[in-house]
Amino acid sequence: MSILRAALFAPLVAAATLSQHQTVRRRASELDKAYDFVIAGGGTTGLTIADRLSEAFPERNVLVIEYGDNVYAPGVFDPPQVIWRGEGGESSPAWTFISLPAPDVLNRTAFVLAGQSLGGSSCINGQFFDRPSRWDFEAWNQLQKPENDESDPQWDWDGIYEYFKRASPSQNHLMKSSRSTAILGTQPSTAAPPHLRELPPFLWDDNDVIRDAFLELGAPELTECSGGDKNGVCWVPTSAHPVTFRRSHAGLGHYAAIQERPNYHVLLNHQVTRVVYGKGCAAKAPPFVEVRSLGDDSVFNVTARLEVVISAGTFHTPTILQRSGIGPSDFLEELEWNYTEPADWSPLPVDMLKDDFLADAVAGFNETPARGPYTLAMANLALFLSLPLITPNILPTPAYRDDPTLIAGYEHQLLVLADLLENPEAPSLESPYATAGTSIPSFLLHPLSRGTVRLDPAKPLDQPIVDYRTASNPVDLDLHLAHVKYLRGVFDTPTVQQYKPVVTVPADDVTSDDDLIQFIKETMVFSYMHPCCTAAMLPREKGGVVGTDLRVHGAKGLRVADISVLPILPSSHTSAQAYAIGEKVNQETRFQ
Ligand SMILES: Cc1cc2nc3c(=O)[nH]c(=O)nc-3n(C[C@H](O)[C@H](O)[C@H](O)COP(=O)(O)OP(=O)(O)OC[C@H]3O[C@@H](n4cnc5c(N)ncnc54)[C@H](O)[C@@H]3O)c2cc1C
Ligand SMILES: *[C@@H]1O[C@H](CO)[C@@H](O)[C@H](O)[C@H]1NC(C)=O
Ligand SMILES: *[C@@H]1O[C@H](CO)[C@@H](O)[C@H](O)[C@H]1NC(C)=O
Ligand SMILES: *[C@@H]1O[C@H](CO)[C@@H](O)[C@H](O)[C@H]1NC(C)=O
Fold it and tell me: Which domains does the chain have, with CATH numbers?
């Protein structure tokens, strides 16, 4: 780190370092003899559950076991963001490894990234904080039928919406419609803030250009999209404190910022290796949780009296289950362009390359209330659009592997996804954007391809083998093609035409559908940081891992609660979903 960067960075580190609670444990000898609830993974969902449980049951003790530490982990857009200068960014404690190559997209591999500190991926994510479409949950619920009925927990919109509200109370009054008014419409939340969601006090000067272009293309205009209706151009808040605009994450909201509780313990720098049932007691008691110290490699068991919850995230929850002997993807590529006759926009992201502008941006972020570009994270505007508003329907066709329950589950998913993709109110495409004149990403919200996460037999305690199988269902390429052709329409809109755009990516000669498919194969990202569904909530006969109460099929005292339980990807980024799952587990399902 350069001296300048170190100097810029120091105050932020100091401000953002989490308080060291007395309840932090670092050794087996510091633990209680047994815990009522043991949670494997102190991430977004795991800490939500631990907070709510330790609050609801003061006489019961809760232990969270986290691989990482209680440290400040700079997020992808956190200041003093060196990615603006192409210097790569501050390195964060994170899980990073490479996927298997995907043969259907030219054998390219993906960089796998997930959070690895108290708070998990919410510590490093892009702070784009939206909620899914109601139609996602109608689809989730259909996937549970006919095996589950009305007496089981419901995951339709009515069955989950309340928990999104509980997870982010301040978000239910977001406004508004254009650059000048967008930022004024929010009220800071006064509720105890696990995670606040607000629009930032800053947007780049050309922010409305593509927004207007989307509206000119015919996309419906929505003032905000958190109430279940999400087909159109949306304002999206940032998960941040409304005054300081410091990142809000689970390590703060569900641990450091709460009153100290003697019954809430966190064991750091330990890996949950597996859960093991004692001889003969599988029918009666929850499993032991086997833990490895990263410090001295010692292995020991933690006893859970009531329940074990695995919340280790999409890539690592399956590794714990697989080590215990207990039994998919979205995409992105971008259109890029330059304006040959831009308006007099100022400032623009390119200004971050100027020392004085950057220094002022950092200074502004350290003021209270915070101001300036660092109050922006990923983006605050996005297009969500259904397939019927883009193109006539493309019907999905099956393609999968050898396990009959997985095939049954996949076939059911394709039927439900066909309905979802035919629904003119259910988004199929997302295109978030922070500023115009650079690029428009295109996310496939409901890919039909399915991948796998498996233990590496040679290194079972190490990273799993991740095989996204991107575009293994070729319909995904057709869906992508339809989305990209639609998005290209923005260049022909009157608003964008004013500034004489020249499209730079894809190149001029990429015009035919075949050329565009090739371009998509070359550029599509395997997951837009929303990997999910690796321990899916589906009936056992359909290859599911957990039921609608999130209990692992056939296992006593064991649940999974994190983004791995999603049956299919929702039409949203996934952190709000992770919090809402934590809230729903606590509130609705009986722990004892
Ligand atoms: C770079 C990036 C950008 C993103 N951007 C956005 C965004 O802008 N908006 C949005 O809504 N979502 C975004 N997401 C997605 C979102 O943050 C995640 O889906 C969500 O936080 C996942 O929550 P989780 O509870 O499933 O897992 P996590 O929060 O990842 O928690 C899992 C925890 O388990 C720990 N762990 C793993 N294995 C073990 C083990 N064996 N023993 C003990 N502990 C273990 C991990 O260290 C981690 O702390 C992004 C994700 C990433 C990685
Ligand atoms: C991908 O790799 C496989 C196995 O190595 C090889 O057979 C195939 O030709 C490769 N495909 C491409 C497009 O390079
Ligand atoms: C944990 O308990 C299980 C079940 O009794 C046992 O098989 C395993 O050996 C124990 N592990 C350790 C490290 O003691
Ligand atoms: C687009 O703009 C960038 C940055 O100003 C410049 O480097 C590049 O040459 C431009 N490309 C075209 C095709 O005009």
Answer: 24-510+525-588 (3.50.50.60)
